[in-house]
Amino acid sequence: MDTVNLTIDNKPVVVKSGTTILEAASGVGMHIPTLCHMKLDDLNIENKPGGCRICVVEVEGRRNLAPACCTDVSEGMKINTHSMRVINARRTVMELILSDHPFDCLICAKSGNCDLQDMAHNLGIREIHYKGEQSTYREDTSPAIIREVDKCIMCRRCETMCNEVQTVGVLSAINRGFESVVSPAFEMNLDHSVCTYCGQCVAVCPTGALTEVDETGKVIRALSDPTKTVIVQTAPAVRAALGEEFGMEAGSLVTGKLVAALRRLGFDHVFDTDFAADLTIMEEGTELLNRLGKHLAGDKDVKLPILTSCCPAWVKFFEHQFPEMKDIPSTARSPQQMFGAIAKTYFADQLGIKREDLVVVSIMPCVAKKYECGRDEFKTNDNPDVDHAITTRELAALIKLSNIDFTALPNEDFDNPLGESTGAGVIFGTTGGVIEAAVRTAYEVHTKKELPKLDFDELRGMEGIREATIDFDGLPIKIGIAHGLGNARKLLEDIQAGNSEFHAIEIMSCPGGCIGGGGQPYHHGDAGILKKRQAALYTEDKNKTLRKSHLNPHIIELYEKFLGEPMSEKAHHLLHTEYFDRT
Amino acid sequence: MTKIKTLADLRKMKEEAQSKIKLRENSANPDQVVQVKVGMATCGIASGAKETMKYFVEELEQEAIDAVVTQTGCMGYCYAEPTVEVKLPGKEPVVYGHVKKEKAREIIDSYIKRGELVDGIIPVSFKTIDD
Amino acid sequence: MPKIKLAENTVQLIKDICVEFENKESELINVLHQVQSKLGYLPAEVQEVIAKELKTSVAKVYGVVTFYSFFTMIPQGENPISICMGTACYVRGAEQVLNEFKRQLKVEVGESTEDGKFSINCLRCVGACGLAPVVTVGEKVYGRVAPTDVKKIIAEYHNR
Amino acid sequence: MTDYKMHLLICGGTGCKASESDEIKNRLNQLIHDLGLEDEVQVVLTGCFGFCEKGPIVKVLPDNTFYVQVSPNDVVEIVEEHIVKGRPVKRLLYTDPTNDKQISDSKGMDFYKKQIRIALKNCGFINPENIDEYIARDGYQALGKCLSELTPEEVIKEVKDSGLRGRGGGGFPTGLKWEITKNVENDQKYVVCNADEGDPGAFMDRSILEGDPHSVLEAMAICGYCIGADKGLVYIRAEYPLAIQRLKIAIKQAEEYGLIGDDILGTGFNFHIELRYGAGAFVCGEETALIHSMEGLRGEPTFKPPFPSVSGYMGKPTNVNNVETFANIPVILNKGAEWFSKIGTEKSKGTKVFALAGKINNVGLIEVPMGTTLREVIYDIGGGIKDGKEFKAVQTGGPSGGCLTKEDLDIPIDYDNLLASGSMMGSGGMIVMDENDCMVSIAKFYLDFTLEESCGKCTPCRVGNKRLYELLDKITQGKGEEQDIEKLKDLSVVIKDTALCGLGQTSPNPVLSTINNFEHEYHAHVHDGKCPAGQCKSLLRYDIVEDLCTGCTLCFRNCPVGAISGERRAPHFIDQTLCIKCGVCYEKCKFNAITLT
């Protein structure tokens, strides 16, 4: 490939042609600040509107300043990234952004974690010289996401996520000039829109314009209510990310500390969603084998592929966008909801208390889980199976609020019976993990043989759409994997067109799967963090003695004592669900 | 309409079309063509100016002389109607009185074609009839 | 926003227009032009139909509608009054004319009078700068309008 | 075939149509028919004559009689007097404002004397709805010659040699642009005509499209031949219904003659043209925004490179030129690059069309050779300042340009000189201002425009221009502070330096140029609380001179807010805290007892 010679701040640099100034500078240790620009390597996600103009640099011979994020280097270029002209321009642009931004940093949900705040600090803004009218908008609260549109700086990252990556199409820039802002159509509330609450907009917002609904207050209230037994479940992806909130290296596994922290917060029983993940495999795996069996027997009514259904944003996505296909996904509930259903029946019975007196809290990497636990079909007598779903970030806030020194905590173990899990449950937190867990169980159930090797490398990775054929002892099973709803849409359209040869497809709404969920600690545009979280989950899986869901002793016990067998009538009632046409 | 199939056809078509707006082209560049102004006020019309004008238009056209024949108001020489002002490219205008068909013929043949002055000039010398 | 129910033939009309443009997303602006010329404005429900037909998101349609000043979501008055605010008209007093219209009709720019007879809009240069300031009512153009002419112009339409 | 002895040309441009030129045409036709003269007299509705100030215009050929401000009621007189009796209708002739002399032949009018018409050569001369008349004027000859006798390289060389530069504002060499697009390899390319003329007060492109649509179509096809495109798109403002209609007719006629379509003139070259409509967004004049708009998106500009020549409409190489640029092409190819390059200045060849507007006697459309001075344009062609007022400034380049002052009157107009004097060529709007125009208000007016037309994508334009506007507004309200003028300058410089597209980068120009040339006016507003031009209402003060007031109570009775008090037959008094400066008292007072300071 051709190379280009240039100088950046008087340093000679040689880079590949087609490199942007931003990338070239970064290569020599000059980190030009950016605000709207976001590039998630490996995920093929890029937001490059060139709109914020924070990254401008001086290029010798050019009339005006050049945006580093979208200007390619050229031979002989002489770039100055911090001349007086540049600094002056950059500061003025920042002042302009701030002049149309509320000054409530101290009480903003994003305070301390805000790209805008950091950058204003780094640019040494001490005064706004250009004050004037500020745009004001109505706040929009939905079951999962809050939009404080006053704080929108038109970086368009959320728009890119919502349209190009997720193809949900709820958010768009509207109006123009000073009035322009990112909004749903007709400035309607999110809960009137086709929003899936995947939370990817929240994950990338550089300000406090998009945040999750904060339910920590409700959790504190429940914990301090002496009449309630409060139990907690924690999703697989949480343990691979929570440490980041306490300054730990990305990819640190903090399962033991997490359990310890939850116990110190006052939860009566600390359980694991991984347990429910194993349960999901029992149900979903059985459903797959049933459908497959009928299909192989020539039953024309049975539909394949079967699609996973543990992701609530994905469920809402197809209910809105592909309602005619709502009989294809597995009817299995998500692990969060299976956990809630079992907790409020089986476990409440064990404790001898009424379901109303048992409060189930879940810690999720996800904002859509807040919406999911509020769905009517997951309630009995108006009492939800899961009472409150809080995000990894909210949990971190709770821990800080409760004066717990997280990093100094000892490692503790989950409680039983709903705390035991296998490695198969752990990898639910990454793209490819659910289907790998399902394969481990389905293979052994179907072939009645033990798997020679448990690591299915062909199902792992970060490619947006992956496919693999697994040999079920002579029966080739075709598997598809998609993460990111845009990728899911492609597979769905193939199915619609009759071009899909898959037997089973795993779909996760968030790029990377739950490790990249909208409720996780902010990645601030660094996709490397997601890969480290993913690696952490595979490590945890490897270190487990049990790595196949059907071998989880407490699952076996649950079926023996309570459910009977997978897909039994009771299982059907508690662990399966139906889908609705939401168009 | 039929399609024009070649450049040659287009060129031919242009020539046909040009004749239709020749009057406009010539009026846009009157200095390059012969200008004939016929006094067409009441007095002129009564004295047969209309026929004179028609004669000029038709004859000049037939002989393919690029010319602009216009009518104008009373030139103030009612005694000599019909009056006609002729201006050759690059020359001062000349006004002729009592121009009927025969005189017009003479003006065309001698003055317009060969530039030889003809009898019957009304001495106006410095003013054109528009003033 | 009050929901309106579109008549079936209106929906069909919109669908037909979309078909005329092969239901192509890239023809959105042409479709919006056509639909607005038929219906007079582009209410939310209409945009929803268009989004569906062109297989795009309604947010995107709304984003486009609100970007271009030519598109409106508010029904126009029977007699849409437009005051040219191009430079030539401006320096020759268009603002005073506009204010007089606003005062007489008691509406702001972009609004319609209560009886639905008039609506006021500003536009940029109709290219009749020689007649500045220019006001159009429907198709009719009024040139060299002074604030004192406003009453007369309104009266022309009042009793129709 | 009828050989008409007399042609009546009626201006059918938007301006004159607004003044009922259609009705004039109908009545003329009717009367001529009634008199049985339809074989003698041809009535033609043409494009704009340019002399919009005095429209509607009726021109009688062959004698070139130029009637101004004709109303339908004048038709009878024109027919009876002029056509039948040959006597011009004197009262409808144009009167030269400088010497009160009536001029009958348009050739004698100063307005036309200094003009050279290339882009406008057919405007006001042919019937734009009749392709034959275009063909009669060498129409499609250039296309025919290119397709049959020249290679694309040869055509591009001719365009390059002519020195033609883009007339849309930037002044990029047209031939070079074509060459760049030609050299990008792709199986599909596009030619786009930018007819999204949005500068307030500019109507050059509209007039060309209305008066001579074929010239643009022909040029687009030539461009398509050169760059290897078989599809052309005209992006035109929806606000130009007449131009759209004429374009549609022209496309249809050209298609019927096979001059557009497949296998043009038997050469195997295919070229189709479609229309795309703007929807009221000035920023769509910027080529990347225009392309997005054509794709059905919000008209937001994107960073260049990639330039449209490489990746444009639908991601394909696209050559975008504006209307006036295209209109020059057939003439250049017919008359030769050498002929064209002799007109104009060293670096700016040919002519430029300007829309003259504002406080000038002859508002209208003119075309002058590059290098003509502002003085010639304003005083000779434009007939000087209206109402004998004093010239103050002229704004060129619209909201992206700047103002030029008395000192600049003798600068020969071309791209480089205008830039050097702090303005720019722009698309050709020229707004003349007189002593009564407040330059701070003018800057505010342009900022208001930019603000409303900003797409909102980049911070400097979205927020920066808002802040500039607010500062200007503050100053015109008399609330300006010492540091505000500096702030205006500083912020303007940063916006120019950092905005994403041409609209944003040039939006502070009116501010900078009015500060550069009229800083004293800004100071007067800020320091003395005065608007020297007497335009900023908040800074006006009406007072009653006691000695002159007779106590007639007329002002008292007319004041809409009750700000005036006083006894009958005793001097009255204005309460400045209540006064809204509407000026009614000033107008009503019969004794000149009210002063305005």
Can you characterise this structure?
The complex is a heterotetramer of chains A (583), B (131), C (160) and D (597). Chain A has 583 residues and is α/β, with parallel strands linked by helices. Chain A has helices spanning 21-27, 84-99, 115-122, 157-165, 200-204, 216-223, 255-265, 273-296, 312-321, 335-351, 368-372, 392-401, 423-426, 433-447, 485-496, 528-543, 553-563, 569-575, and strands spanning 3-8, 11-16, 38-40, 45-47, 56-59, 66-67, 78-80, 140-141, 145-147, 172-174, 181-183, 210-212, 229-234, 269-272, 306-307, 358-364, 379-380, 383-384, 388-391, 465-472, 475-483, 504-508. In chain A, strand 21, helix 15 and strand 22 form a beta-alpha-beta unit. In chain A, the strands form seven sheets. Chain A has a five-stranded mixed beta sheet with strand order 2-1-7-5-6, with helices on both faces. Chain B has a single domain, classed as Glutaredoxin, CATH 3.40.30. In chain B, helix 4 packs across helix 5. With 597 residues, chain D is an alpha/beta fold. In chain D, the strands form six sheets. Chain D has a five-stranded mixed beta sheet, with helices on both faces. Chain D has a four-stranded mixed beta sheet with strand order 2-1-3-4, with helices on one face. In chain D, a hairpin with a 5-residue loop joins strand 11 and strand 12 (364-369). The N and C termini of chain D lie far apart (69 Å). In chain D, 61% of the residues are buried. Chains in contact: A-C, A-D, B-D, C-D. At the C-D interface, helix 2, helix 4 and helix 5 of C face helix 1, strand 11, strand 15 and helix 17 of D.
Outline the low-pLDDT stretches of chain C: none
Query: Largest beta sheet of chain A: what is the strand line-up?
Result: 2-1-7-5-6
Low-confidence stretches of chain A: none
SS elements, strand count of chain A? 22
User: Rg of chain A to the nearest angstrom?
Assistant: 25 Å
- Quaternary status of these chains? heterotetramer
Distance between the termini of chain A: 50 Å
Strand fraction of chain A equals 15-25%
Q: What share of the residues of chain C lie within helices?
A: 40-55%
Spatial gap, N to C terminus of chain C: 31 Å
Percent range for helical residues of chain A?
25-40%
**Structural class label of chain A:** alpha/beta
Would you list the SSEs of chain C in sequence order as H and E?
HHHHEHHEEEH
Mean pLDDT of chain C: 87
Topology:
The complex is a heterotetramer of chains A (583), B (131), C (160) and D (597).
Chain B: H1 7-20, H2 22-28, E1 34-39, H3 42-46, H4 49-62, E2 67-72, E3 84-87, E4 94-96, H5 101-114, E5 121-122
Chain C: H1 8-20, H2 28-39, H3 44-53, H4 58-67, E1 79-84, H5 87-91, H6 94-105, E2 118-123, E3 135-137, E4 140-142, H7 150-158
Parallel strand pairs in C: 1-2
Antiparallel strand pairs in C: 1-3, 3-4
Chain D: E1 6-11, H1 14-18, H2 21-34, E2 41-46, E3 58-61, E4 65-67, H3 75-84, E5 94-95, E6 102-103, H4 110-113, H5 131-136, H6 141-149, H7 152-162, H8 174-183, E7 190-195, H9 204-211, H10 213-227, E8 231-236, H11 241-256, E9 272-277, H12 287-294, E10 318-322, H13 323-335, H14 337-341, E11 351-358, E12 364-369, H15 374-381, E13 391-396, E14 402-405, H16 415-420, E15 429-434, H17 439-453, H18 459-476, H19 484-498, H20 502-506, H21 509-527, E16 542-544, H22 554-558, E17 564-565, E18 573-574, H23 584-588, E19 594-596
Parallel strand pairs in D: 1-2, 7-8, 7-10, 8-9, 11-15
Antiparallel strand pairs in D: 1-3, 3-4, 5-6, 11-12, 13-14, 13-15, 16-19, 17-18
Helix pairs in contact in D: 6-10, 6-13, 7-8, 7-10, 9-11, 10-13, 17-18, 17-21, 18-19, 19-21
